[in-house]
Amino acid sequence: MDTLVAMELLEKFKQGDQWLYSNSEMATKFLTKDSPDSYLDMIAFTNKTLYPIFGNLESAILEGTTQWQKTFGMSAEDFFPNVCNTEEAKLRFMGAMHCNSLYASYAAAKAIDLSAYRSCCDLGGAVGTLAYALCQFYPEMKITVCDLEPAVSLAHLFRPSVEACPNQANVSFAVGDFFKPETIPKADLYVLSHVLHDWSEDKVDLILSNVYKCLPSGGGLLICERILNEDKRGPLPSLIFSLLMLVSTGGKERSASEYKHLLEKHGFVDVQAKSVYFTQDAIFCRKM
């Protein structure tokens, strides 16, 4: 218990002859179930999924493949339907994704001036964490979150209060797939947040090609990812996350120049990268 006090997770106080313990302010905020800032779902997902699969990092490096089969005895395509096979399990997974991006979303939303855009589509935006952040800074912007049905069906459970997000009515949800351009809602600004690092090069090319086709002339694309230093010697958290992508998705993190090359290959111009938060950076570009 005293170790937890030293870690600032508990507070220790004396009542009469007894020493008593209570949650610290930090623990109450991040480690209690009812807190809107709770990290419990992300901690549970990390314990059950990410830690075990990271244990096969050596095999991933030697083989250059994801490690779902070796870790869990099934492919990634089979793993999530098996693990997220109840509404409660789906809710926990979406909760993990929500809390993992909550603070970074607010930092990304104000990192680059997006006031020129009136309609936005957050592709793969899950339960709308970034969309609700965007509508706080751009009250005139109408934002559509486009994702697969399991995410959209649970999104209402993560809607912030009107007091916390007065413009929440500007956010709507649509079932769609960024691999199928005919299902992508029209917008003059698209967002890809923590999407590109999940996929192989050919899938990344397909996603960017679809976005470019859907954008009108002058439209913008905001990408939220971790950016590596040009010499690939840091930042350390981004390098570790890139290894996690290797073992779990077959994707990777990239440097700013790699994003510039990738985006210009697909016809985007005015590529700019900006560091905005310790877990997330922003890359912005336009279609001519």
UniProtKB/TrEMBL annotation:
Pfam families: Methyltransf_2. Residues 54-268 form the O-methyltransferase C-terminal domain. It comes from the Eukaryota. InterPro entries: COMT-like, COMT_C, SAM-dependent_MTases_sf. The keyword Transferase applies. Keywords: Methyltransferase, S-adenosyl-L-methionine, Transferase. It is an enzyme of class 2 (transferase). Its EC number is 2.1.1.4. Catalyzes the transfer of a methyl group onto N-acetylserotonin, producing melatonin (N-acetyl-5-methoxytryptamine). This is Acetylserotonin O-methyltransferase.
